[in-house]
Amino acid sequence: MIVMKFGGTSVANCEAISRTISIVQSKLAQKPVVVVSALSKVTDLLYKISDQAAKKNTAGAVELLDQLRSRHIGLAHDLMAETPSFCHDACSRINDICDRLDAFVGAVCALGELSDRSKAVIISTGEYLSSNIICCAMNSKGIKTGFMDARTMIITGNDYLKGEPDMAAIAEKVPGVVSEAYDGNDAVITQGFVSATSDGEPTVLGRGGSDYSASLIGMAIDASVIEIWTDVDGVRTADPRKVENTRCIERISFEEAAEMAHFGAKVLHPLTIEPAVKKNIPIYVLNSMNSEGKGTVILQSSFIEDGVKSVSFKENILVINIFSTKMINTSGFLKKVFEIFSINKVSVDLISTSEANISVTVDSSQNIDKVVEQLSEFADVYVDSDKSQISVIGKNIINLKGLLSRTFAPLADCKIYMISQGASYVNLSFVVDRSELTDAVRQIHKYLFENESCN
Questions:
Q1: Which of 82, 262, 324, 340 has the fewest other C-beta atoms within 10 Å?
Q2: Rounded CA gap, 255 and 253, in Å?
Q3: SS3 80
């Protein structure tokens, strides 16, 4: 079996879904398990609906709900115009899902209180709509397709909006659900992003979690391959939206891919790699708009050559500087500091320490007010905003002669606030002013990839 995940742009409209169905059809001999995201921009729409419900803005919510329904009904008619019975089935499913969502949102509007559980119900609706439409469309094309509800097999803890997968429960449930759905069928389809607690309470895996769903399913069924179908030709040496002349990387290691995803690369969800590593399952990143392309394959490190693979970045970060003479020759100080981050659920990216100072970076989207308040009880705390993080990522980069000079040569006039090299020798990261980011990334990419190769 193989797992094939199709993101929002791969299921954005009639043309994109038709391409997706053709790709699945070409893989039927490998028994595909298809995982789909919501249609492009639909999850954003659902977040807006939840916001309107929280504000008791019934009229605003109803307007958006009507947009949601009409887009999916229109898509069903476009996809299955020549097969009325399948189109009728799809529209019936859409109306049923939308009717239930309308009633649910109406109840939230009446209460004026949006719990995390209610928000999980609302924002996960897009995947149920897209998976039902695509299931009907695949059947209309002669591909007998079984439907699976992800909440019967992707089991998480009780965090409704960022469920922590229960790996043992998933490994136990997925094979049986997939086997039952495959009975008499050519393929099966389910939802990415969507999950549930062991008691059946609705949860989601967090934004971008469809990749993670695919990897979890692949792990559970011992898939031969996990394919992530997106709208770019694999993983590139830098973000092509920022940098010209980027290259597609033919192969990278699990470790390199994880670092790229964590440090800003948009192609994969950061948690995608872990389940695949457990079973050593190759991950392919492919372009649904160019199905003949080779894309990028992610493999265990022994198959990957040394060298720099990419320049990644996080555009908007904060640097928190913690100064205290109490940490000099004192055990337990670091533990005290990082317990505060843990208690307040603020994740840290880079860490740099000296005798009396700790500097860390965090994503600017996180609320650090309580962290700063609690740290200030025993240390002087300064926060630098409007900063960006740049990461040079590759295998065994510590062994690459001249890497530091090649990386920092373009930054002679750029102020660098912090430097950190990972213990795994997979990344070299540093912090610059946000205003300098674009030029810095372009210049570093030019030095590393467009001049002589870095060996």
A1: 82
A2: 5
A3: coil
- Distance from C-alpha of 281 to C-alpha of 83, rounded to nearest angstrom: 38
pLDDT in tens, 79-133: 999 999 999 999 999 999 999 999 999 999 998 889 999 999 999 999 999 999 9
User: Is the separation of the CB atoms in 370 and 408 below 8 Å?
Assistant: no
Gyration radius from the chain CA atoms: 24
Within 10 angstroms of residue 109's Cβ, the number of other Cβ atoms is 21
Instruction: Write the CB contacts of 308 (distance below 8 Å, at least 6 apart in sequence).
Output: 392, 393, 394, 397, 400, 403, 448, 449, 454
**Collapsing DSSP states into helix, strand and coil, what is residue 275?**
helix
- Pairing state between β 416-421 and 427-433: antiparallel
Instruction: Pick the closest to residue 62 from 15, 32, 93, 106 (CA basis).
Output: 106
The whole-angstrom separation of Cα 368 and Cα 371 is: 5
CA distances from 212 to 163, 204, 388 (A): 11, 11, 26
Q: What span, in angstroms and rounded, lies between the C-alpha atoms of 430 and 391? A: 7
Rounded to 5°, angle at Cα 154 from 16 and 175: 90
Residue 150, φ and ψ in degrees, nearest 5 = -60, -25
Looking at residue 242, the DSSP 8-state letter turns out to be: T
For helices 14-25 and 125-140, angle between their N-to-C axes, nearest 10 degrees: 60
The sign of the dihedral angle between the CA atoms of 247, 252, 256, 259 is positive
Domains located in the chain, CATH noted: 2-231 (3.40.1160.10), 309-450 (3.30.2130.10)
CB atoms within 10 A of CB 212: 27
Q: What tokens appear for 298 in the block?
A: 């992610």
Task: Report how far residue 382's alpha carbon sits from residue 357's, in angstroms, rounded to the nearest whole number.
Answer: 11
* Terminal C-alpha separation, the chain: 38
Q: What's the token pair of residue 348?
A: 């840290």
Contact 410, 447 (CB under 8 A): yes
pTM over 0.85: yes
Residue 429, SS3 per DSSP: strand
Give Cβ neighbours of residue 45 (< 8 Å, ≥ 6 apart): 64, 67, 68, 126
The span from the CA of 351 to the CA of 361, in Å, is: 7
- From its phi and psi, is residue 305 left (phi > 0), alpha (psi between -120 and 50) or beta? beta
| Three-state DSSP state, 147 | strand
The answer to whether 108 and 54 are in contact (CB under 8 A) is yes
